[in-house]
Design a protein that fits this description.
single chain, 11 strands, 213 residues, 11-stranded antiparallel β-sheet
């Protein structure tokens, strides 16, 4: 067979797909590419930033407001200002404090080794498990809007988690600007957990997460 024929046959087969199916496949591929190295869903490529997190209950009432600092995924401070509870994590070391500035008290236990590898593995699982993908195009503010559902695979302890997500990306920078999550699923809740989470990303190259001396 002529070497060009298989490619031609494949192209003809793809062209024969119903337009809706072809568009859905293209959208899924577009969202999957956001998990690539340097993509908007790659936390290791995301510049230093703040995450402003608002959590809502099933009735729509606001439950709590969180504030997280990320220098990298392995150098973070996360907490709830109204409850005066913050945790600093640098690699495997952990500290607790009453504010985002501390003062910090070292914890006796550590986060599991290999957190970075575990994060990357979860990214690959989420990418592989994408469903219900929608590419809405630019919204009224010019941000690219995507919808997708995904979850991680159960780990050795049968722990998994996932949600239905809406993501808005700045097309000029390629960075995530806002995310909303609903229809949560996880290994510790039966069925779909109610509620909603809103995350706003605020980028600041001056953010540093430095452990106390």
């Amino acid at each position: 067979m002529h070497p060009a024929l298989p490619a031609a046959i494949l192209a003809a087969a793809l062209a024969a797909l119903p337009p809706a199916i072809a568009a859905a496949d293209a959208c899924r591929d577009e969202i999957a590419a956001l998990y690539d190295a340097g993509g908007a869903l790659d936390p290791f490529a995301r510049p230093p930033h703040r995450q402003h997190v608002r959590e809502f209950g099933a009735d729509g009432a606001e439950l709590r407001v969180g504030l997280n600092l990320f220098e990298t995924p392995l150098r973070t401070i996360a907490g709830i200002p109204a409850e005066s509870q913050f945790t600093m994590a640098v690699e495997s070391d952990l500290w607790n404090g009453p504010s985002i500035e501390g003062p910090w008290q070292k914890l006796d236990f550590q986060a599991p080794e290999g957190r970075g590898d575990a994060m990357r593995a979860s990214m690959e699982e989420e990418r592989a498990n994408l469903t219900d993908t929608e590419c809405h195009g630019p919204d009224a503010d010019g941000l690219l809007h995507y919808t997708y559902r995904t979850r991680t695979d159960p780990d050795s302890n049968d722990v998994f988690y996932g949600a239905l997500s809406d993501l808005w990306i700045d097309p000029e920078t390629g960075q995530a600007m806002r995310m909303e999550k609903t229809e949560f699923v996880n290994s510790w809740t039966e069925g779909i957990a109610p509620g909603r989470q809103e995350i706003t990303f605020e980028y600041d190259g001056n953010i540093r997460v430095t452990p106390p001396e």
